[in-house]
Write a structure and sequence with these properties.
It is a single chain. It contains no helices and 11 strands. The protein has 120 residues and is mainly beta. Strands 2, 4, 5, 6, 9, 10 and 11 form a 7-stranded mixed sheet that branches. Strands 1-3-8-7 form a 4-stranded antiparallel sheet, with no helix packed on it.
């Protein structure tokens, strides 16, 4: 029932910027934690950043100072502003949103993934 739609990936040169968006819809009572993960070829999926409902954020060490996660609660949307991109940031980026649905059911939902490629 819950659908996540990601947008904003693409190809950018090193040092450039991209902004990812992920909007949730369908059967939502409340959106809880929101986050971004990434998976590079041959590597495990890793947490990039997350944000709780109160706005408290957490970042993977390699992106601190370069990436900013934010959320718009009325729009059920999470953003990832990525600046000073490096080739090692190349990966498929996935949003993850934890949602409380009807009757208090909590579900963990993933976006379809969006490719970010940073050329050197």
């Amino acid at each position: 029932q819950v659908q996540l739609v990601e947008s904003g990936g693409g190809l950018v040169q090193a040092g450039g910027s991209l902004r990812l968006s992920c909007a949730a819809s369908g059967g939502i009572f409340r959106v809880n934690a929101m986050g971004w993960y990434r998976q590079a070829p041959g590597k495990q999926r890793e947490l990039v950043a997350d944000i709780n409902r109160d706005g408290r954020t957490n970042y993977e060490d390699s992106v601190k100072g370069r990436f900013t996660i934010s959320r718009d609660n009325p729009k059920n949307t999470v953003y990832l502003q990525m600046n000073s991109l490096k080739p090692e940031d190349t990966a498929v980026y996935y949003c993850r949103i934890t949602v409380t649905q009807g009757l208090g059911v909590v579900t963990d939902n993933w976006g379809q993934g969006t490719q970010v490629t940073v050329s050197s």
